[in-house]
Amino acid sequence: MKRIMTLLLCLVLSLSLNSVVFAEKPDTQPGTPDNGNLNTSGFLSYDELVKALKQIEKNSQGRIEVEAAGTSNRGRTIHKATVGTGEKVVLITSQIHGNEPTGTQALVNLLQFLGSSNSPEAQKVRDEITLVAVPQMNPDAAEKERRGNDMTWDEVVQDFPQLAEVQPAWNYYTRTLQGHDYTQNPGFDVNRDYHPNLDYVPRAEDFPGSSSEPGWYITPESRIIRDIYKSLQNEYGQVDVYVDLHHQAPYYYVEGSDDLVTMSLSGKFVQDPSSPGSDYAEYADRYNFDFSRQLNVAAYQALRQGNSIFKNITLYPQDIDLPGTALGSFALNGSGAVLFEVRGQTQSMGQKMKGQLIKTVERGLHGILQSVASGEVYEIDPEAYDQIPQTDR
């Protein structure tokens, strides 16, 4: 009853503020906020982000390099920021879905700290880690405050003529979704456009595909992140850690309680490639689920050591198999992988909740970087991952 009353109160308040009623779907997947639109007012716009990154680079006295990694489908520059000179490589991306902006601000804050701080913590990270951050990898979607990018199927066929006669990809949005009308400006869920084979070229026989199958690298946004990943592999041998920052539904609960989830973590995005009959057996020697579990525990422990605002951290549901996500693809390629899914930022949560969510992401990221830099992450018992409280969907 308490849970029902809490949910009803949130719904009523949300309705009064923005005439939005949230309805849950039964098949939530990582990075899929299923409770309507997210309010991005007060978060960094594309232009504000560009200015912030330039200022951070200027103030860093050479510690941070900001570069153009490529351009979105509508010609906006996608920026990457690099800090540190260590042999351990960490790649962090945010806002692959344009209406999920909390991680972008958290990444900017993290870069500002690592670029300007002379603290022992910052210096240790810079000495041991090469951090590459892409704070807003889908700027077209961010400008429209929606999930999907801004790209038509005809544009895909222009780039890949071999797809002229096939049915469009399953993740192509042409309808109203989460309150956004894609009928006039279609787009793709970029986080279903990855393939474990980093050299994959789209083939007609692989379309339209499905959520349980790999993507195709048909969007420029996914290709840019893929190319960053490959360039780091070529330079350093491997990408040790990949972290992707997302939002999820605001009305998930900690299993067995009436407490709303603040953030969920996960290190599992595909089924074990060493299991009998796996479609990805060729990646079994690279896949390192234990390391992904250790990284997630490092984030969880850092949040548990914080003050009272860092609470209700859960493990995202583990019954998923999504090789078309960046996390699934890069995990199969040997990276320790971490998903951050903060509670949905809606009008009913206010500025206080916005600040809490940003700080939660920051604290979790600091926990990962500190543990990797110090080497403590390798001493964590991977089985502790299974002790993280579960999310009740």
Tell me the layout of helices and strands.
Layout: H1 2-18, H2 46-59, E1 64-71, E2 77-83, E3 88-94, H3 102-116, H4 120-128, E4 129-134, H5 139-144, H6 153-159, E5 172-173, E6 176-177, E7 180-181, E8 187-188, H7 220-236, E9 241-248, E10 253-254, E11 263-266, H8 289-304, E12 313-315, H9 326-332, E13 336-343, H10 350-374, E14 391-392
Parallel strand pairs: 3-4, 3-9, 9-13, 11-12
Antiparallel strand pairs: 1-2, 2-4, 5-8, 6-7, 10-14, 11-13
Pfam family, one: Peptidase_M14
Family: Belongs to the peptidase M14 family.
GO molecular function, one term: zinc ion binding
What would you say this structure looks like, in words?
With 393 residues, the chain is an alpha/beta fold. It has one domain (27-392): Zn peptidases (Aminopeptidase). The protein is 34% helix and 16% strand. The strands form 4 sheets. Strands 1-2-4-3-9-13-11-12 form an 8-stranded mixed beta sheet, with helices on both faces. Helix 3 packs across helix 10 (350-374). The longest helix has 25 residues, at 350-374. The radius of gyration is 20 Å and the shape is globular.
Quick gist of this model?
Residues 42-361 form the Peptidase M14 domain. The chain has helices at 2-18, 46-59, 102-116, 120-128, 139-144, 153-159, 220-236, 289-304, 326-332, 350-374; strands at residues 64-71, 77-83, 88-94, 129-134, 172-173, 176-177, 180-181, 187-188, 241-248, 253-254, 263-266, 313-315, 336-343, 391-392.
Shape estimate: globular
Number of strands: 14
Give the amount of beta strand, in percent.
15-25%
* Mean pLDDT metric: 89
Ends apart, CA distance between termini: 16 Å
**Low-pLDDT segments, ≥5 res:** 4-28, 31-38
- Order of adjacent strands in the largest pleated sheet: 1-2-4-3-9-13-11-12
The CATH architecture: 3-Layer(aba) Sandwich
Strand-and-helix sequence, N→C?
A: HHEEEHHEHHEEEEHEEEHEHEHE
Kindly state the percentage of residues in helix: 25-40%
Domain Peptidase M14: 42-361
Protein name: Zinc carboxypeptidase
Signal peptide: 1-23
GO cellular component, one term: extracellular space
